[in-house]
Amino acid sequence: MSVQTHTLKNGFRILTENMPGLESTTIGVWVNAGARNETASQNGIAHFLEHMAFKGTKRRTSLEIVESIENVGGFLNAYTSRETTAYYARVLAQDVPLALDVLGDILRNSTFEAKEIEVERGVIIQEIGQSLDTPDDVVFDWLQEVAYPDQPMGRSILGPTELIKGFNRNDLSGFVAQNYGPENLILSAAGAVDHDALVKQAEALFGDMPRGTAPLAVASRFIGGERRVLKDLEQAHFTLAFESPDYSGNELFPAQVFALVLGGGMTSRLFQEIREKRGLCYSIFASSSPSVDTGMFSIYAGTSGDQLAELMTLTVDELRRAADDISEAEVERSRVQMKAGLLMGLESPSARAERMARAMTIWGKVPTLSETVEKIDAVNVANVREFGTSLCVSGKQAMALYGPIEVAPTLASLNETLLT
User: Fold this and answer.
1) Residue of 38, 50, 116, 243 with catalytic role
2) Is the pTM of this model over 0.90?
3) What are phi and psi of 289, to 5 degrees?
4) Cα angle 79, 83, 86; round to 5
């Protein structure tokens, strides 16, 4: 299997990967714009726009949009992240032209009717309410906010209710005009797909789009700080974050290995020490999440209020200990887990389509599988320990706490423990 690429004259990029033996295709358009491309007064509009794409075009009603895909047994969806908005479908091979026509329609011909805007405004406000009732969603939004204060990278994807209440058709159209130029769009398809046929149809649907002038996203700066919100909940929710490598950093793969060793599975140090041996929590994990110009290494756990202080102290102790004595066996297991996860994920056409689109956005190319595996295999104990040590001595962390947190240590005291 190999990736084929084509770029239209206006900068619109097309990526395909044929997967022999499959009868279905995942096809989507990835937009290089998300929540971090909003101004403060626009916060939430990228996500609002994603919803509105399904609410009617010049050719199809909202019902006809979903019927056209579901009538052939397909699936249509979208999502918004801080850096990307994606619109995608999974259909049988013979229905790929239909899926691409629908995607082109919702991206280029959405009408943003006032009545539909009001309906979807209510839906999004309910979505915000649901998120606010989910403590582990809320605490991660707060963590992002204290890590990147007063920056687009620190704002929530859903946006605040007060702004959602005010968006109108001109706001939506303006964001599209500014951020949905062809040079910002990538059509990616994997599975049972004919590259030449897709290019021909994409040329007809998108080839006449004029190039846009999207402004560069505001650069991100990890600042750090803490937010503590006392509330009568069953559990106290604890999150701790450090700046970690962006997609271009040399420490990208060591950071991911360190996250797996520390809190990436049932064999991880945090899981074994804090859950299995001490029974202090049900859920605890660590992750390294890169972005285009920054990254976040985060730890999360939920526990009872009276056990929170012990859990937090043990978590920091395990972090510091891992930086000192992480073993070759742990690194090897994590390398194997990363490679297995990569290979298992690539059995899915949806995972392949998204991987191609994101890689092209970040690096301007799609790395081969062997290139990625080579970088994973190059990770060793020394550079994993070095990364862990860099977290401990950084002196710059973000922390968010939510629930019965009266006994929780301060961020300053945790930092002192890391430096001890």
Assistant:
1) 50
2) yes
3) -120, 100
4) 30
